Amino acid sequence: MTLVTRVATGATAALLGLAVALSSATVPAAAADAATLTGIVLGVGADQAQRTVTWYSSADTAQKVQVAPTEQVVNGEFPANPATFDAVGGANVSGGRFNRHATITNLKESTAYSYRVGADDNWSPVYAFKTQSFEGDYDFLFFGDPQIGSSGDLAKDQAGWVDTVNVATAANPDAELLVSGGDQVETAGTETQWDAFLAPDGLRRYPWVATIGNHDVGSKAYEQHFTVPNTDRSGPLYGNGNPASNTSGGNYWFIYKDVLFIDINSNSYATSQGGGGDAAHVKYVTDVINQHGNEAKWKVLVFHHAIYSPAAHAQDGDAKLRRVDFPTAFSSLGVDLVLQGHDHSYSRSYLIKNSEKANPDEQPGAAEVTAGPGGVLYITSNSASGSKYYDISAPKTDQPSSGAGNGPDPLNPSTYWYNSVQNQEHVRTYVKVGVRKDKLVVENLRSGTCAAPNAAVEKGVSCDNDPAAKPVGSTVDKVTVHPYNGEGQALSVDVPNAAPGEFGWTIDGYNGLVDLGTAEEKNGDHFEAAGSINPIVVSDNRRSQAPWSISASVSDFSDGAKTFAGSYLGWTPKVVEAGAGARAGNPVVSGFDDQGQGLAKSRGLGSADQGHPKGVAKLGADLTLKIPGDVETGGYRATLTITALSS
Q: What is the chain's percent helix, strand, coil content, to nearest 5?
């Protein structure tokens, strides 16, 4: 019997979109009715290429997050193979619900994404977020004490909070983070307050950087609602020293572009309560900065209890204690900015060094300041919801104007010695921080006026705001902070984005036909034919040096209605011409020899690892075809589909 076998090479490139990393832990599945999914909130990841998503579920079922570029989501329908991230979580401490969270990884810059949570046939609505460039300048927004429920009118508090988030994100649509000053709610374990806090749609579009306030700490709800990266939940970082208790706690850090953020649980400040106190936080901040401080240009600390605030809490004993425990450490560690809440009023400190004014000549309200060695700026944020305001208090003339004291400012005796600006109009505000290559720009902005929604004012608190002169979006205070660049001359250079380069492949010579000739009978039980594929030329000059791979699979061979399996084809890949870090794939034997799948299953022709050099490679493969002796006579063809993958 004479068998003429021909193989036609078809070229198909497959684009690899979003890389997927699955969590190692999963939630056990249970037979149950469809879960109700609530409290969905987008959170910050370990860097700008990550996000977290956290939510509540009415059922203890296996769930996940699906993510796809928004351009691939049509009429709410996700593509066939979206990136999928399994959720982890457990039973809530109270309330009969279950918490779930997942971390989205390997996001691409300057890309709009859509996501949803749940499981097959039971998905949440689709939400969206957008990444920006992973390098360069950016803005983030800081919000003080929504404390939903503190006015006594949950609906009014929610309305003010929703309005502030809407105003802030509408005015700053490209802001990249929403940072919390703590006290998300009035009562830590009251889920109706958490539901109201999570009402703004912006909390599903922009990552929320959570901070524990004293009103959040008294249950596990804070930890159940928010997922934060690089979390240390050891005993010393809890107020009572006991992470297993029904309280929330812990510190965390992350790097976003040029900023190292460190967020600490300031509810743990006294060792007499069982925790590690301020010393544990100083150690934590010191360790993080020593390990990661060189990875970022700026260092920003966030915690709830303001130490240089202007109002009701300015003279609290714990504030005075921290005023001694923290500033020297922060100055020596090169901290640039400290963001705080708790006092429901706005203040901007002078640059503080070692518990004193760094420059005695710095003027009140200066628009430009230069940090000098050890100078740190402290910001206290006003209420972002209007649920509660504290009036500014008077300094103590019998106390020192340094250290723990609450004495007056020699340059402005009606204010505390440490504050350059103090403000309380009883209107909602938020803080915008512009991160620039050579400065930080800090601006306090009005998100409301005396008019509703403004719960405290609606319930009788006075209001000092002229909406014509100080409308929504107007500036309360603005300062530009220039860093200390040393005693000599600092050098700076900007490196622009290089052309990204290209990755591509072609069939050498563009001849798609591989003729294996006429198969020869062997041992009276099978036929064999051999040949080589036309070489594949791979060119990669991308700056990213991302990994790549070329693979292929073969269809069944056919001649009209007559067929035999593609599994009978095997190969031995080789690098014909070295370059671009190429290495050959593993040999694959004909399925005739091992009853395997041969090239009917996709097999690697060649690949290169991350970090490979730029260049051009040529890949080839010797083909071996072994087919059973009972195959009918004919001229057979098959298609070899070649797939290129690269991130």
A: 15, 35, 50
**Tokens representing 182?**
């703590």
The answer to whether 122 touches 109, Cβ cutoff 8 Å, is: no
Rg of the chain (C-alpha set): 31
Contact of 527 with 626, CB cutoff 8 Å: yes
Could you list the beta-strand ranges (E) of 206-355: 208-209, 252-256, 259-263, 298-305, 337-341, 346-349, 352-353
SS3 192: helix
301 has pLDDT over 90? yes
Quote the pTM value: 0.76
Q: Is the peptide bond before 453 cis (omega within 30 degrees of 0)?
A: yes
What is the tens place of the pLDDT at every residue in 487-534? Answer: 666 566 665 666 777 888 887 755 556 889 899 999 889 999 999 998
* Sign (positive or negative) of CA dihedral 452, 454, 459, 460: negative
DSSP states along 108-173 = PTT-EEEEEEEETTEEPPPEEEE---SSS-EEEEEEB---BTTTS-HHHHHHHHHHHHHHHHHH-T
DSSP 268-307: ---GGGTS-HHHHHHHHHHHHHHHHGGG-SEEEEEEEE-S
Using DSSP's 3-state secondary structure scheme, residue 502 falls into coil
Angle at 567 between CA 563 and CA 573, to 5 degrees: 130
C-alpha span between 452 and 58 (Å, rounded): 34
Give 91-128 pLDDT, tens digit per residue.
999 878 999 999 999 999 999 999 999 999 899 999 99
User: How far is Cα 420 from Cα 422, in angstroms, rounded to an integer?
Assistant: 7
- Residue 237 carries which DSSP code? G
Q: Which residues are 56's β-sheet partners?
A: 38, 99
What whole-number distance in Å separates Cα of residue 296 and Cα of residue 291? 11
pLDDT per residue as tens digits for the range 530-569: 999 989 999 998 888 899 999 999 999 998 889 999 999 9
Q: Residue 422's CB: how many other CB atoms inside 10 A?
A: 24
Taken in order of first residue, the domains within the chain and their CATH numbers are: 33-134 (2.60.40.380), 135-482 (3.60.21.10), 503-646 (2.60.40)
> Taking all residues of the chain, what is their mean pLDDT, rounded to a whole number?
91
For residues 22, 25, 29 and 30, what is the CA-based torsion angle, rounded to 10 degrees? -150
> Which residues pair with residue 540 across a beta bridge?
503, 615
- CA dist 279 and 271 (Å) reads 9
Calpha distance 573→438 (Å, rounded) = 52
For residues 461-478, average pLDDT: 97
Q: In whole angstroms, what is the distance from residue 108 CA to residue 115 CA?
A: 15
**CA dihedral angle for residue 321, residue 324, residue 329, residue 332, rounded to 10 degrees:** 160
Pair of tokens at residue 459: 């319930």
Distance, CA of 217 to CA of 603 (rounded, Å): 54
| pLDDT score of 20 more than 50 | no
Concatenated DSSP letters of 555-576: --EEETTEEE-GGGEEEEEEEE
d(CA 508, CA 487): 60
User: For 319-352, what is each residue's pLDDT tens digit?
Assistant: 999 999 999 999 999 999 999 999 999 999 999 9
Block residue for tokens 């503190």 = 150
- 375 pLDDT band, cuts 50/70/90, is very high
